[in-house]
Hints:
Elements: E1 13-20, E2 27-38, E3 41-46, E4 49-57, E5 60-65, E6 73-78, H1 81-89, H2 94-97, H3 100-104
Antiparallel strand pairs: 1-2, 2-3, 3-4, 4-5, 5-6
Amino acid sequence: MKTSDRRTKKIDATWNLHVHFESGKVDTDVEVSLDQLKNDVERVVVNGRQIGYVHHVDPVYVALSGPDLARAVEVSQKLTLDQSIRDLLNTVPVEVIDPSLAQRA
């Protein structure tokens, strides 16, 4: 019988997502990547900028906003990783998601 232990290997993932807010201010593609810090904690990076963490505490994924894991603030608890990432995206300024908006201000 073969078993695999996620703790023995580092797993990182990157996605290209299309983000659209109903306000119409943002309608763009973003790069979201996860960097595994611990067996159950992922750092969430959007367009190269860290926005928070997702801590998997079975059965939920806890979204934590902030640059420092020790001081990060809980945003939500969801049943899926993608829901937690979406909640984190809702906590950051739109300039992080679409840097062109910062240039217009």
